Prior knowledge:
The N terminus is likely disordered. By secondary structure, this protein is mainly β. The two termini are 52 Å apart. Strands 8, 9, 10, 11, 12, 13, 14, 15, 17 and 18 form a 10-stranded mixed sheet that branches. The radius of gyration is 28 Å and the shape is elongated. The chain folds into 2 domains: 140 residues, no CATH class; 161 residues, no CATH class. It contains 3 helices and 19 strands. Keywords: Signal.
Amino acid sequence: MRKILSIFSLLILLVATQGQAANLWGVTSLTGGGVGALDALDITGYGSPNYENLSDGDVAVRASISGTTVTYQVFLFDADGTDAESSPDIIRPDDFSTQGVWRKWDPDDGPILKESELDDEGKLEDVTNTQIATEAEAQGYVAAGVTGTLSSLSDGEYMAVDYLTLTAGEDINLASFSGFPQVYFKNDGVNDGGRIFLFDADVTATDKETFPMIGVAVSTATTGNSITVRVEGMLARRDGFTTLTGNQDEGKPLYAGTTGGGLQTLVKPTTAGDDVCRVAIILQVDGSGGTGDVFLYMMPRVSVKVPI
């Protein structure tokens, strides 16, 4: 069932990428010209079964179910195709004159059409040459994600990141944990900039209050070496935060200030009724281990109010 749902979700995506000119057609047979036949769909629509012309990138689906077994075939319309009919791979509409054929496409070949194969109007430039990624490749794209570093950006730039490459402040060995260990980021008072440390529920009270968890470690590292941390947020560089102190504030959160959308501050709100909302974590202070003020904006899911 999951595979069937994935296929039909993909078909919706295919039609969406083709723009308003594309249609999704359902058929019950391929040839013969009868009711429900694929070849009965006219290139030049003028009445039943289709009042609209077939367009490059139109999708047709033939599906049937017998007991619990579902079979399906998917076809893409190639408005420039001139191939001879060879069912089920190539189907010519009954009103074929000089060009326009249906090409069979197997969803098992993969779910992703590369954007480079679409023209400026969102139509397929050449269906025969369209490259389709395998399911494993598609999963790999998601798993790979986007990795940022503290030197990735110039002042004023930002990027969505899935991972950060940082420096371990202690030995972290994934083999020692049943899952991926949660970590936090702070300046250890010795080294320039901040480093990654293991976070737990009974971490020292000062650290737990001052340095929030940033993510989970997904690689093994020894002290002073690079470690990859899974995060979720927006890496941003915005120089000129004059209130920051290098070799001290790395790892601390920025809170939403009392001016709408404006000032973000190191000071935690204490006025009764105010929201305590962490907006970002400080990753780098200009001149302390690197150039520029760098932050990880982690969109808050929950904010708490100061008791009244």
